[in-house]
Amino acid sequence: MIEIDHITKTYGDINAVDAVSMVIETGTITVVVGTSGSGKTTLLRMINRLVEPTSGEVRINGEPTHAVAPYLLRRRIGYAIQGHGLFPHQTVARNIASVPRLLDWPTDKINARVDELLSLFGMDPAEFRDRYPQELSGGQQQRVGVARALASRPDLLLMDEPFGALDPIIRARAQDDLKEIQRKLGSTIVLVTHDMDEAIRLGDRVGVMDGGKLVQYAPPEDIVERPASGFVANMVGDAERPMRLLSLIPVGDLTEDGAAEGAMLPDTASLRDALSACLWTGRDAVPVERDGAQIGRVTLAAIRHRVGQHA
Amino acid sequence: MGLTVSPPGVLFAVLGAASLLLPFLTLRANRIVAGEGAAPWEVAGPTVTIAALTAIAAGLACGLLPSRPWLRFAGSLLSLAGLIFLLSRGAANLLGDAGDLARVSPAAGFWCLLSVVMLLMADAIGGLQPGPRLRLGLLTLVLGALALLLWSGALNDLSPMQEYRTRAAAFRTATWRHVALALGSLGVAAAIGFPLGILAFRKARVRAVTLPVLSFLQTIPSLAMFGIMIPILGWVGATVPGAQAVGIAGIGFAPAFVALLLYSLLPVVANTVAGLGSVPAASVEAARGMGMTGPQRFWTVELPLALPVILAGLRIVLVQNIGLAVIAGLIGGGGYGTFVFQGLNQTATDLILLGALPTVLMALVAAILMDIVVEVAQPTLNRKNT
Q1: Nearest residue to B314 via CA among B182, B153, B137
Q2: What's the pLDDT at B314?
Q3: B289 touches chain A (CB under 8 A)
Q4: What is the pLDDT of residues B104-115, one digit of tens each?
Q5: ipTM above 0.90?
Q6: Is any Cβ of chain A less than 8 angstroms from the Cβ of B283?
Q7: What is the spatial distance between Cα B359 and Cα B335, in angstroms, rounded to a whole number?
Q8: Do B156 and B198 share a domain, yes or no?
Q9: Among the three residues B127, B161, B195, which one is the final residue of a domain in this structure?
């Protein structure tokens, strides 16, 4: 568990981060979203003390971060940044091994860990181990950057706009991969972004920052359905709120008995997918399947009803 | 793509053909007087002339072929062989009919042809895109061939070689002195310049003072710099106890060394600053974020990434110093400059060449070696070429 306790950073007269408190549960993804200048990056960098807080403290599993030397603290916290920050003069394997080497792991353990991570990220170790970063695609570089941040099995992974440099299609895949890997490893992740879509897509909880203050910290459904202020509503985007809400709810939640024509959707698909299918093929209901067998249908009326509930 | 001839090859062939119209060797009654030029077809007997000119022409013709770099390289070697063959035989032939004091020197035609052939060789090697190991091999081969040629005595009839024979011991001393001036000042400049460059990179205030001052030093003409050094070091030598004992005086080695050192500082410091500045900010940020200490960050990330630019600075300094060290000859600093200025005083062109040619060779070898070192320092770039 990560506790951020009334943390403040002051530059001159300005509070870049103003008395922010939040509790981050182990094994979850927390996304901090805000416009540029909202203080989200400063907040993140105070967790691993790249920025020293003016007041307040951060505790990781009960232990205050100011109790250890910054460089020792950082070796326990993974850090992935926009534009990956890989070392161009080192091979992929050496890049990933950076923190384990700082921690003096034995060589065979490091090598095994590098291969394990490359496989986890869908990159064949034999093929990629000895390549240099500039010989990889943008998506591969980003994955190596995250693999490097995870190499020493850190207590916590901090990510600062990690997908910012990727094009939209690669970014969506990278987000899915991150979510899957996080579920598999049970990592605790704090991710900073300016993209509300990314926040809703990835976050178990989403924190919205404005002018150094944390204006709302809640599960993504709440952020969409019950924005705490006009600013949050604006970030979510009024016109897109129904679609954002639907994208968060699985079809399984609204499945009812009954028959429907046409192609089936899996019960893990979102209501947004179901709505698209209805509109595109001119149907009033879509059949829902699980493991290949139809388990019911989801109707246009039910989707409309669910969206109407928010108020 | 569809080119049937190499455009630079055409240029080299045309220039080479034009150079054949210039006098190839000069024959003089003694080492001072003006001489008479002899055209390439006049210097030797018909067999030698035909063989040599055929080789030169065939080599330049090979240079016309595009997309065959090895053949073009072989062509440049063939031309070079023909050129040297004609030089060696022509010199012996011309001297045979002249008096004891007569001298034969290479003339404009020879130098132009040599330049053209060297350009062809450089162009062909550029087309080969050789890796560092191959370049080192080629360099060793060329230097070995040159040493063999000089040792064999095939060029002994030429006037610069005769100048050498009367000064062999002085030449050896001058060589070591030249190396000591160029390399020694580089070494001291690096020892001062690296820390200064690192400091200037980190502290804007140091940078704001250091770089303009060093730039100013760089703009002082070299002769003026020696002139300034003479009174300053003369005073130091006369007043500081023990200074004279270690060789500090107004003229000689010390002022030359200090002047070269001052010229060297700007490239070393400026390239250290530029090299450290070229390290990607994201890599440094990542290194900090993963828990590297300051020294770890410097040695494993910043320095290796800055090294190619820093080494490029050293390359500039080394080549510049080898050339500038010639001027040390003016103030008794020794080195090849001694021969150049003696030659100028005696209007003995061949003595000037005895100083100038090894300087050019040394600078060329230093440049090629440093290029190889710079490339080896960039492991990722080599891989892209292969």
Answers
A1: B182
A2: 92
A3: yes
A4: 888 899 999 999
A5: no
A6: yes
A7: 9
A8: no
A9: B161
